Amino acid sequence: MEFRHLGRSGLIISEIAYGNWLTHGSQVEEEAALSCVRAALDAGITTYDTADVYAETRAEAVLGRALKGERREGLEIFTKVFWPTGPGRNDRGLGRKHIMESIDGSLRRLQTDYVDLYQAHRYDPSTPLEETMVAFADVVRSGKALYIGVSEWTAQQIREAHTLAQELRVPLVSSQPQYSMLWRVIEAEVVPTCEELGLGQIVWSPIAQGVLTGKYTPGTPPPAGSRATDSKGGATMVSRFLGDDVLERVQRLKPLADQAGLSLAQLAVAWVLQNPNVSAAIIGASRPEQVGENVKAAGVKLEPELLSAIDAVLDPVVERDPARTAEGSPKTRP
Predict the structure, then answer these.
(1) Which of 12, 16, 49, 227 sits CB 3.0–4.6 Å from 78 for a disulfide?
(2) Residue 137, domain member (yes or no)
(3) Residue 27 is part of a domain; what is its CATH number?
(4) To which protein family does this belong (predicted)?
(5) Where are the beta strands (DSSP E) in the chain?
(6) Separation of alpha carbons 106 and 51, rounded Å
(7) How many domains does the chain have?
């Protein structure tokens, strides 16, 4: 495993992080989830990402049980707040009440006294940003989180939050966006802004919900049991990448991966790690062997000629519009 600083902060994290968005507490049984975390630990992964909303809070609880007994100082545990976790009007969003209650719930489920990074899972248009940032600052000053970050915020939202964070003297250090060879919407605005301000990217879905593994092929139905057939496992999100034009071009990446001595999945994870503003790529797994396969992307350097060849293959189907970040966030509190 290789390690990187999270932005310009002093926190060092594994460049491949383990996330349990669509698996723990929902898609796989707990024993399999525990085996996947054990495989991640054995592979040298020290950074674990989750959220209170995943599997209706069950994912945090599973991760807490999986990491119990590990040396806490040797781990970096990240979680998030924003999406609804209960029926009440205040069981959602980034208002002070929800943030202060949610951090306590997350710590209880994770069986830890603090998280290393507490992230705003989306921007809350219904709450003044000042209220949100003061609440996050109080979470940090209470010792319940060491750093704060955001997920799927626009460049302008990040800049405004950073200004308040500086005034409050609270460490805003990261952005967690979707990023892959097919989804590059952060490159035009979010990445330059974060480079300027000192935030690092912790990217999710580096293999485009599995499409960049090559398992989906043009002209054929998705394999049974795959994410594209699971309405609770991200089928809606993966559908954007299932056009035959995209799938045909993904298949054309196979000779390039072979040339680099990598699987398609390893190539995809290694590709996002070539971006110097990326501090970590989040991988998920439903089987332990998937962890071992994907961590082989750590430390891989892709030559400029290979990167150019990848661009030549994928360029017509790559999504680059920075406006897609704002489109993916709710316009009102969910």
Answers:
(1) 49
(2) yes
(3) 3.20.20.100
(4) Belongs to the shaker potassium channel beta subunit family.
(5) 3-5, 12-14, 16-19, 47-49, 76-81, 115-120, 145-150, 172-175, 200-203, 278-283
(6) 8
(7) 1
pLDDT tens digits, residue range 258-300? 999 999 999 999 999 999 999 999 999 888 999 999 999 999 9
Q: What is the reported pLDDT for 23?
A: 65
- Encoded tokens for 133: 């940032």
Q: Give the count of beta carbons closer than 10 Å to the beta carbon of residue 128.
A: 11
Are 34 and 285 in contact by the 8 Å Cβ rule? The answer is no
In the structure, what pLDDT confidence band is assigned to residue 182 with cuts at 50, 70 and 90? very high
Residues pairing with 319 in the sheet: 183
Q: How far is CA 235 from CA 36, 176, 210, 228, in A?
A: 22, 21, 11, 4
φ and ψ at 111, to 5 degrees? 60, 50
Contact criterion met (CB below 8 Å) for 286 and 32: yes
Closest-CA residue to 257 (of 216, 297, 298)? 297
Lowest mean pLDDT among 24-33, 90-99, 208-217, 307-316: 24-33
**Region 31-40: what's the mean pLDDT?**
91
Instruction: Provide the pairing of β-strand 47-49 with 76-81.
Output: parallel
Domain assignment of residue 157, given as a range: 10-327
Measured distance CA(173)–CA(334) in Å, rounded: 26
Q: What is the pLDDT of residues 76-95, one digit of tens each?
A: 999 999 999 999 999 999 99
Q: Does 334 reside within a domain?
A: no
Point out the catalytic residue in the list 18, 48, 54, 179: 54
The reply to whether 332 falls in a domain is no
Rounded Cα distance, 200 and 9, in Å:
9
Give the mean pLDDT of the chain: 92
Whether pTM > 0.70 for this model: the answer is: yes
Whether 48 sits among the annotated catalytic residues: the reply is no
Q: Per-residue pLDDT averaged across 32-39, rounded?
A: 91
